[in-house]
Write a structure and sequence with these properties.
Blueprint: E1 2-14, E2 24-41, E3 45-50, E4 57-60, H1 74-84, E5 89-96, H2 106-117, H3 125-140, H4 147-154, E6 159-164, E7 169-174, E8 180-185, H5 197-211, H6 219-222, H7 228-252, H8 256-272, H9 279-289, E9 294-299, E10 307-312, E11 321-323, E12 330-334
Parallel strand pairs: 3-5
Antiparallel strand pairs: 1-2, 1-12, 2-5, 2-6, 3-4, 6-7, 8-10, 8-11, 9-10
Helix pairs in contact: 1-2, 1-3, 2-3, 2-4, 3-4, 5-7, 7-8
The structure holds adenosine-5'-diphosphate (ADP) and magnesium ion (MG).
Magnesium ion binds near residues 108, 148 and 192.
């Protein structure tokens, strides 16, 4: 029996560095993604090739330590196999239409597609997302949040997803017909595992050690924090949560001008308060926002290179990828 599993990538419209403090995010699953095709085998190896990486993986199961596996991309597969306590073999291929390492969550897409191909339960969305988050943390040694995995699993065509990362409640928010979401690469590669992501996360945790949950903190509370970098990080999180909720309201009202304004304000906050932007990302956002018909633009993903997302009138942006809000990950089995 041949199994085909597909998982989308995602673009985060607004809400960066809020997911690891239990706040709000507004991503959408996109019509670019990862496909894993293969068969269960009698031996105890997971063998996969990828059209993105010439190094094939030959992973003995059960997996002992996903973080040591070579080649590095196989660690994601090993993380999933370890979480599933897999003890049967699988041979197959991975193909992707996503730009890898660019902030469109090729890693969560790979994890979820692999998990489904290797036998994870497709019906329990929340557990599937949490399992893939744990797999990524074990594989890459990055304390990533759950937004990517949940967005990839819960995608809904034509909708963005307002996610409360404390309760994991997902509310689909319809996207107006007369806008385009465009993703443009800054030209700067980005790899979460080697970026100062963990250090920025630590700033937010230091703020929470002083104030308690940033989700319920006010700007008055934030001003009590003595350390200026921790204070600025907290300011970003508190104002970003407000922008996410305001952007979801504006989307529901079809007010794309307001959504765009909030996106551009989010970029400024990521740049000034959290310091996760780069000159290339800033220049790209500046250029896009100055383009006729663009409502707003911001870096997307955790920063430190990668892509910018813009909200625009259809046809206004002539570079990058026009992405459409897509359904979530799924599975097909054939004899
Ligand atoms: P992003 O998730 O934004 O694309 P990450 O740095 O989180 O960036 O993940 C990128 C990593 O995921 C790659 O370096 C690679 O190890 C792995 N990866 C993702 N998709 C694939 C794929 N199709 N084939 C091989 N490796 C992949
Ligand atoms: Mg990723």
């Amino acid at each position: 029996m041949t199994t085909t599993a597909w998982a989308p990538g995602r673009v985060n419209l607004i809400g960066d560095h809020t997911d690891h403090t239990g706040g709000f995010v507004l991503p959408m699953a996109i019509d670019l993604g990862t496909t894993v095709v293969g068969n269960v085998t009698d031996d105890r190896f997971v063998r996969l090739s990828s059209d993105h990486d010439p190094a094939t993986i030959s992973l003995p199961v059960p997996v002992v330590d996903p973080a040591r596996f070579e080649p590095v991309w196989g660690r994601y597969v090993a993380g999933v196999a370890a979480e599933l306590e897999l003890s049967t073999g699988f041979t197959g291929t991975v193909t992707t239409t996503l730009p890898v390492g660019s902030g469109l969550s090729s890693s969560a897409s790979l994890l979820v597609a692999t998990a489904l191909a290797l036998g994870a339960d497709p019906s329990n969305h929340r557990e599937l997302a949490l399992m893939c988050q744990r797999a990524e943390q074990r594989a890459a040694g990055v304390p990533c949040g759950v937004m990517d995995h949940l967005a990839v699993v819960e995608g809904r065509a034509g909708h963005a997803l307002l996610i409360d990362t404390s309760s994991l409640h997902v509310e689909p928010v319809p996207l107006p017909d007369d806008v385009e979401v465009v993703v443009v690469h800054s030209g700067e590669p980005r790899r979460l595992a080697s970026s100062p992501y963990a250090e920025r996360r630590a700033r937010c945790e230091a703020a929470q050690a002083e104030l308690g949950s940033l989700r319920s903190a006010s700007l008055v509370d934030v001003e009590q924090i003595a350390d200026p970098t921790v204070r600025a990080a907290a300011r970003h999180v508190v104002t970003e949560n407000q922008r996410v909720l305001a952007a979801a309201d504006a989307l529901r009202d079809g007010d794309v001008i307001e959504v765009g304004r909030l996106m551009t304000a989010s970029h400024a906050s990521l740049r000034h308060d959290l310091d996760v932007s780069t000159p290339a990302l800033d220049a790209l956002v500046h250029r896009l926002v100055a383009t006729r018909g663009v409502y707003g633009a911001r870096l997307t993903g955790a920063g430190f290179g990668g892509c910018v997302v813009a909200l625009a009138r259809p046809g206004a942006v002539t570079e990058g990828w026009v992405v459409r809000a897509s359904g979530g990950a799924g599975l097909r089995r054939r004899r």
